[in-house]
Amino acid sequence: MVRHPYTHTLHSPTESLLVLVCGKNFQVVDTNDGSIKASSCDVPEEIKSSVVEIKDGHTDVIRTLAFSPDGKLLATSGEDKSLKIWTVSNWSCLNTRPVIKRYNAINFSTENDMIFVADKFGDVYKLPIDPTTGHEELLLGHVSMTTDMLLTPGNKHIITADRDEKIRVSNYPDTYNIHSFCLGHTEFVSQVRLLSFAPELLVSGGGDGMIMVWDYLNGSLKQAINLREILDQQSCQPITGNHVFVTTLEVSPQNKDVLVLIEKYNNGLVFRWNEASATLDFQQVISLNADPLDGAYDNNGNLWLSYSDKSSDLVVSFKDQDGKYEQSEAKLVNEFGSCEVETLPNLYPTGLLRKITVPEEEINEAEDAEQPKKKAKSE
Q: Where are WD repeat segments found (predicted)?
């Protein structure tokens, strides 16, 4: 038996609570001391009396989750094709509804009264918080899989990213009216985030080894950062492979930082906002003991990272000390947290978004080998 790593991390916008997903379960950690406050999986007897038992959980892997802006609700959805809404105050399940297609992204409206979801078939829907008060409403669709989705402040626009390298900005509620496209990536777009300290700007990353900063209303590219060049300059080497797939983009309003995590690299890259030049400048490479699966900033600007199964510590935290992130003391969650499984699932799904999974040189070799056969048949 092995401990299941935390594949997704999400911090509350209002409280010192960090949600950690492990398979079909999730746990809630107090970021003040690293203690477990609630859990849907079994916890050791010595802490059971202080941990809220989360009931009515998912029956298969949780794919995506989101807090409401006021921090009072949490939405989760998974491979079991269900959407669950949780009340944060006591971690009870407010309601559960079945979904036809698996969701890749969830957002709450600014008013906390509606949920917006994007599914793997390219569609975005609006749903009421209470399923008994209405039905889902189709808002827009892509011809490709939607990989990420967010709402701008005041629900003025819906920004969607897809597997076909596109970022689309749609007006809301008139979503048939496309406001702009942000076009420049040459591979799938995996993550889009608004820069809260420069709200007119959007940062994106994906499978082409670039992060890009956009004036999303005008669809204009403001900055393009080549991650491979930075990784080479910092002597960062991948665990396996030679791809630079962005798995995580997280924005810290407190520090005006952007964290970039890359699949199968034992590093985190931090970029800091430069007010004078209105650009993201490379700040620091964080060297880690294992490859990080996800990361989140807490409300004090501290950074939390979840590790893969190659490390005994599944969660580590870093504090910003004089402009540099330094690792903090070990957290209690590493002693008591996570669930045990016999075998681990695929922890690296981002690369599966590639439309061409066979390297180009292998395709060329296969075509060259096939040419004599075709010629022989024609003769």
A: 55-96, 182-224
| Helix (H) / strand (E) containing 370 | helix 360-378
Q: Left, alpha or beta for 173 (phi > 0: left; psi -120 to 50: alpha)? A: alpha
Show the tokens assigned to 107.
Answer: 């957002």
Sign of the Cα pseudo-torsion (287, 289, 293, 298, in order): negative
Cβ 297 vs Cβ 305: under 8 Å: no
Would you say 20 and 339 are in contact if contact means Cβ atoms under 8 Å apart?
A: no
Q: What is the pLDDT of residues 8-38, one digit of tens each?
A: 999 999 999 999 999 999 999 999 999 999 9
- Proportion of the chain in helix, strand, coil states, percent, rounded to 5: 10, 45, 40
Please give the Cα distance from 68 to 115 (Å, whole number): 9
297-352 pLDDT, tens digit each: 999 999 999 998 767 789 999 999 988 999 998 788 999 999 888 888 888 889 88
Distance CA 163, CA 1 (A): 35
Task: Return the closest-CA partner of residue 85 out of 77, 94, 61.
Answer: 94
Sign of CA dihedral 234, 235, 240, 241: positive
- In one-letter notation, the amino acid at residue 253 is P
Angle at 354 between CA 242 and CA 245, to 5 degrees: 45
What pTM did the predictor assign? 0.92
**How far is residue 173 CA from its own chain's centroid?**
25
